[in-house]
Amino acid sequence: MKTLIIEWQRLLDKRNKTCPRCGSTEQEVEKAVQSLKQVLNSTGIDVSLVKKAINPVRFKKDVLQSNKILIAGKTLEEWLGARTGQSPCCEVCGDAKCRTIEYADQTHETIPADLIVKAGLLAASQVFNVKLPQVNQRKSALKLLAKKC
């Protein structure tokens, strides 16, 4: 079976705490991975989620490494034609301007499952050359997949 690898990395402090933005994204990533597994399993593709921690020293050198999602080695933004942005964060991140995603005229601090699913479907279709449901910027990939399942 082929495997689509989704990597997600975020800042963890000494107490293994992260900010609310990354905490919410973690829930969205897990939801997206479950949806992708349901759809891609029938095509012979497994989906694997790898969570990586960034320590505070590395975070201070490059804050945009936190809350970053890679799918098959490319960023979510590359798959979607989105842009990486920044906005002030809080708590564990201090006053850092952390990663956001700008897609379809919206800025997302928490990365929604829907965008992760769209990027995952694009990656699977290109990397493994499989025919999958088409999704566009305005349609919800999760709703589309629910109809297909």
Strand fraction? 25-35%
- Strand numbers in spatial order across the main sheet: 2-1-3-4
* Mean pLDDT over the residues: 91
Number of strands: 7
Please identify the structural class as seen in this structure.
alpha+beta
Spatial separation of the terminal alpha carbons: 20 Å
Q: Mind describing the biggest β-sheet? A: 4 strands, mixed
Order of helices and strands: EHEHEEHEEEHH
Low confidence ranges: none
Shape: globular
Rg value: 15 Å
Task: Provide structural commentary.
This protein has one domain (2-148). Helices cover 37% and strands 28% of the residues. It contains five helices and seven strands; from the N terminus they run βαβαββαβββαα. It has helices spanning 20-40, 56-61, 76-80, 113-127, 141-148, and strands at residues 2-11, 45-54, 68-71, 74-75, 83-88, 97-103, 106-108. Strands 2-1-3-4 form a four-stranded mixed beta sheet. A three-stranded antiparallel beta sheet has the order 5-6-7. α1 crosses α4. The longest helix has 21 residues, at 20-40. The two termini are 20 Å apart.
What attributes does this structure have?
single chain, 149 residues, alpha+beta, 4-stranded mixed sheet, 5 helices
Brief summary:
This protein has 149 residues and is of the alpha+beta class. Helix content is 37%, strand content 28%.
